[in-house]
Design a protein that fits this description.
Elements lengths: L2 H13 L2 E5 L9 H12 L5 E4 L4 H11 L6 E4 L2 E4 L1 H9 L3 H5 L1
Parallel strand pairs: 1-2
Antiparallel strand pairs: 1-3, 3-4
Helix pairs in contact: 2-4
Length: 102
């Protein structure tokens, strides 16, 4: 991964308490997994930043390299990688999500 991509990722995930690399936007997710993440965050009235990876193929791959996680969306809380839609759903199911993003 290029140093510029790593720096940009670090800046983005540091810019908001919750940051999501996703397909589409927070208002118009472009895949069911991104839509599910948005839904879970909205349940908790979470404010989050995002980057639409469909508009930046290099960043799409760079964030996967950054985390070692092969899929999008990817959710960060307080600069820490949390996971994707499946992990957020597990956290919601066991009552952790509200605590982590709260």
């Amino acid at each position: 991964m290029e140093i510029n991509h790593q720096k940009r990722i670090e800046e983005l995930i540091g810019s908001q308490k919750i940051f999501v690399f996703m397909k589409g936007t927070g208002e118009d997710p472009a895949c069911r997994f991104s839509a599910h993440v948005v839904h879970l965050l909205n349940i908790h009235k979470a404010v989050f930043g995002y980057l639409n990876v469909l508009e930046d193929e290099e960043m799409r791959q760079a964030v996967k390299d950054f985390t070692g996680w092969p899929t999008i969306p990817q959710v960060f809380v307080e600069g820490k990688f949390i996971g994707g839609a499946d992990i957020l759903q597990e956290m919601e199911d066991n009552g952790e999500l509200g605590v982590v993003i709260g």
